[in-house]
Structures are given as C-alpha cells and as structure tokens.
C-alpha cells in the first residue's frame, strides 16, 4: 500500500475519532451537566486558544534554537 494513502487513512480515522469524541463530550456537558450551548462554546474556544498558544510557543522556541 502507498505510504501516502496509509497516512491519509490514519489522519482521516483520527479526525473522525476526534469529531465523535467532541460530539459525545458536548452532549454530556449539555444534557448531563446542564451547561448551555454558549458556555460550552466559550470553554471550547478558550481551550483551543490555549492549545494553539502552547503549540506556537513550542514551535517558535524550536525554530529559534536552530534545530531543523
């Protein structure tokens, strides 16, 4: 099997699993815990911003040290 095709399949499976997990967590937070949709959205956007910031800092530190 072509390595590019295999990587694409893995990426697709990871994205589908992430989507299913996000949907299940949203459902539990909304129905089970009683959070409003707006509260869930704010929490998700805050978490995404924190993860993006962490990855940006890690990427910048790696590039500034001259590592390939």
What is the tally of beta strands?
Answer: 0
Number of helices, counting only DSSP H or I runs of 4 residues or more: 2
Structural class category: mainly alpha
Main sheet: strands, sense, barrel: none
Gross morphology is flat
Fraction of residues in β-strands: under 5%
Give the SSE string: HH
Proportion in helices:
over 70%
Report the end-to-end length measured between terminal Cα atoms.
29 Å
Domain tally? 2
The low-confidence parts are none
In short:
The protein is mainly alpha-helical and 68 residues long.
Structure notes:
Helix content is 85%, strand content 0%. The chain folds into 2 domains: 1-35; 36-68. It has helices at 3-32, 37-64. The model has no long low-confidence stretch (mean pLDDT 92). It contains 2 helices and no strands. With 68 residues, it is mostly helical. The longest helix is centred in the first third of the chain and has 30 residues, at 3-32. It starts with a helix and ends with a helix.
């Amino acid at each position: 099997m072509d390595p590019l095709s295999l990587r694409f399949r893995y990426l697709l499976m990871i994205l589908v699993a992430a989507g299913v997990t996000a949907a299940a967590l949203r459902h539990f937070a909304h129905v089970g815990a009683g959070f409003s949709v707006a509260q869930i959205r704010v929490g998700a956007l805050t978490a995404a911003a924190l993860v993006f910031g962490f990855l940006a800092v890690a990427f910048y530190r790696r590039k500034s040290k001259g590592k390939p």
